[in-house]
Amino acid sequence: MGVIQRVVKPRNSRSKRALEKREPKNIENTxxxxxxxxxxxxxxxxxxxxxLYSLRKHHSLxxxxxxxxxxxxxxxxxxxxxxxxxxxxxxxxVARTKKHQNNMVIGRMFNHHLLDLIEVDVxxxxxxxxxxxxxxxxxxxPCLTFAGPGWEDDAALRTLKSLLLDLFRGVEATAxxxxxxxxxxxxxxxxxKTVLMRGYSIHLKKSGLRTxxxxxxxxxxxxxxxxxxxxxxxxxxMKRACRQPKQVKANRVKxxxxxxxxxxxxxxxxxxxxxxxxxxxxxxxxxKVEGGDGADGGGGGGGGEEEQxxxx
Length: 312
What we know:
By secondary structure, the chain is of the alpha+beta class. 22% of the residues lie in helices and 28% in strands. Strands 1, 2, 3, 4, 5, 6, 7, 8, 9 and 10 form a 10-stranded mixed β-sheet that branches. A two-stranded antiparallel ribbon has the order 11-12. The longest helix has 14 residues, at 155-168. The protein is elongated. The termini are far apart.
């Protein structure tokens, strides 16, 4: 059972603006993410949650108090209500269960209902505080790299990759600046159930060439993710979630293409032409001369010679 939708009428201008902000748009806002803790969680997982929150600080909300009634893999309804309350499409939840001491759940919503989620067990965690290397500013948009063939072959890993891209992408970039690449997150799929996460700081050094020399320093967070339970979206639901409105789709420009050199080429469609009535240059050699029949007193042969001379 999902969240019950009800009609909310604004009481003042402020609440009206807040409701208009939550209305569907052709171009949606940057996804808000909720970071919260369950009934029980170890200090290590709390630190892990804070490190993930620092990587996406500008469009996230960290709920400090415990939520004992939350269990996304068992009952998703309280999480859906919490997401609707804070207008959040993503959530990251940590807790300690009987079977998994370091449990983490990453999921996302569509229309205030669960779209998909992945449950992982975290091990070998090393926080940002354990590395003495200089770190970038909080909320820096990272570069994401995925290594391993499993990201395209396994359905659960494909969903985890999509979740990680939504979790760390932040604001959509319209321009790229080379000095803006300060943080890199690498995810290595060892097998279908194990993923290694590493965080690196990017430094641009002089190389004597036009392109700089790149050096990476390990700054964390570092952890190993072991995939557990998952709830994947159906094909119809994913198609609805990825559908674009007509206003956003770019108008297709027909009959225009570019060659390998970047030149713009256009194709023109013309109607069929009647070449019989084509106006050409009038030449004396192409002039048609009627043959004589002796009416001017001359013989028929004379007329034939004159016609032959004209054709020549």
